[in-house]
């Protein structure tokens, strides 16, 4: 029985033969593969988390605030202060990572008999979570330079009339941003085809040269902007994602959320992190400078680089990207092979980590010549 496999079990048909999300977690000196923030939380914040969690621990015999009111209020303040658009508690919802936000959105607006579209290559979990929620997945088009052609994308929306549209900006794994005009064009196309929900995934927006698309929420009740504390806030281990949308959307996702899904410990930790927003965003400007340095140096070495508004950079082209990935790993640096033919992705790390990465790819380039 020890060789019993997933497909020997009575799993749902759409899960047969599929693999789980699996970025390698390898123990190597330089890990630049999952778009994490390389800076540990500052000691003053670690202390504040301990304080807040100690206080929360005194009440762990009780369920947490099911509606996470204080946390959503603070998140709304953060968005209002930085996003160029006023939102309040009623516009904001939070969950365990933006992956759970996306799952709740698909449970609410997708599901069996319904479809969602994303413009690929893009964040692979959109399609995987669609599958997990029984939502049909449609792979929409991108240009060869990884930009979205608004007309081709609008045509794909008109032809398929999806229930949910994902637009990731800045996009993962390619790094480039999508303009407000394109998002508006796709929103309009999606409303004309079928009143559908348009999710703008802004997981990396704090690293962008441009502004958040939050102001587009005005007058667009089917638009959702999703965010996370995993990247700019340097708190991937916390698991806290959130969305901003019309209050009716916030009410609707509560139909599918599990009661008390955000633990009291999570809420206390996130609140402590939000008290230190300005310090944490200070790391963002350092990372943006390092990201720009990576782009410049990779180009100087002779690589093709996709324009980046994120905390990572897509570079190529390789005849065999996986082979190149392996050779960079042999030099102690873990980058990401997202399966985009010819391209790899590197997350901006500390200056020393980025130097180690640049040394590794310089050596690789010499070997290739
Ligand atoms: N959206 C995008 C575009 C991402 O790249 C990621 C993480 N890699 C997420 C959402 C999910 O992040 P989390 O669940 O940690 O908030």
Would you kindly provide a written description of the structure presented here, covering whatever features stand out?
The protein is α/β, with parallel strands linked by helices and 369 residues long. The protein has 2 domains: 6-42 and 279-368, Aspartate Aminotransferase, domain 1 (Alpha-Beta Complex), CATH 3.90.1150.10; 59-275, Aspartate Aminotransferase, domain 2. The protein has 11 helices and 12 strands. The chain has helices at residues 43-57, 69-83, 97-109, 124-132, 150-160, 180-193, 247-253, 264-275, 277-301, 321-330, 351-368; strands spanning 30-31, 92-95, 115-119, 136-140, 164-168, 197-201, 223-228, 241-245, 304-305, 312-316, 333-334, 343-347. The chain has a 7-stranded mixed beta sheet with strand order 2-8-7-6-5-3-4, with helices on both faces. The N and C termini lie far apart (51 Å). The mean pLDDT is 95. The structure holds 4'-deoxy-4'-aminopyridoxal-5'-phosphate (PMP). 4'-deoxy-4'-aminopyridoxal-5'-phosphate (PMP) binds next to α3. Its EC number is 2.6.1.9. Belongs to the class-II pyridoxal-phosphate-dependent aminotransferase family. Histidinol-phosphate aminotransferase subfamily.
CATH superfamily of the largest domain: Type I PLP-dependent aspartate aminotransferase-like (Major domain)
The whole-number mean of residue pLDDT values reads: 95
Helix and strand composition category: alpha/beta
* Order of helical and strand elements: EHHEHEHEHEHEEEHHHEEHEEH
Number of helices: 11
Cofactors and ligands present?
4'-deoxy-4'-aminopyridoxal-5'-phosphate
* Largest sheet composition: 7 strands, mixed
Q: CATH topology of the largest domain, which one? A: Aspartate Aminotransferase, domain 2
